[in-house]
Amino acid sequence: MSEVEQALVRAADAARLAPSIHNTQPWRWVVRADRLELFAVAERQLRAQDPDARMLLISCGAALHHARVALDAEGWAHTVERVGSLAPDAPLAVITPGERRTAEAEATRHLQMLQVRRTDRRTVRDEAVPEDVLDQLVKAAEQAGARLHVLGRDQVLELAVAVERAQAAEAADDRARAELATWVGGERPEGTGIPSSALPAEMPLTTVAERDFQTAGTVEAGAGHDRSATYAVLYGTGDAEPDWLRGGESLSRLWLAATEHAVTVLPFSGPVEVPFTRDALRRMLGGAGVPYLALRLGLQDPARTAPPHTPRLPATQVIRVED
């Protein structure tokens, strides 16, 4: 195996750590002699909650960015073609490596953050994220192709209503409830889904309700509230498949920057999954773009032990090397 192929395998392996909707990990990678191809896996799409594959594309975009971070950390220049195809025999994206050069310190830090990043559903500290850090997170999202709109207090209340309405709509859908039960709870030995060890034992008392996973976890939610949390909407100007991929790349880029500043990121996909609440998010943006996700940003409590990583599929199930 050539030096380039080995680097591409390592990049695909790093991408296994990417966040995904309900930890479905709906991607697979094909390593070729001169490129790395990303494919969607239809079997791990949430058909009831995500029939248009928007959250699948966001998830795969996050994996795409993780792979690029790994290449950057080794100094590999590369280009990306975002095809956006959901067909099983056509890639979502293709990474083509170029020359190798000295890696920048920022790229090394990003790789380190990739390895420690996780989803923390517990309450946040009673101290707001500093404005200069928020500015850096806004810039990080823009660097990857999307934008971050920070919500004012009145808009946070609108988001709370949208989240509540989206939860009610999905709770009334038998298929959505059954699908959720398939991916959430238990020990998850198969390597996908959200285990009980990553879920709060009780729902935190917050202005914007977290997703009700219909099962209790084992993590103490904490006694705080979300009054000091910052809520935002990640959005873009396009609604095609490559645009949603870029949305996932921006989520990953923002999340790594947040991790570096001890800021937790909690995505809210529910109001994007339901058409009428997605329209509500669009109105919050003043019609300026397409909402990809709502996010809660808050400072980590340094006294708490970090929640465990969610399980991951083995590399042999998501990476194939073509001779």
From TrEMBL:
InterPro entries with a match to the protein in the record: Nitroreductase-like, Nitroreductase/BluB
MF annotations from Gene Ontology: oxidoreductase activity
Protein name: NAD(P)H nitroreductase
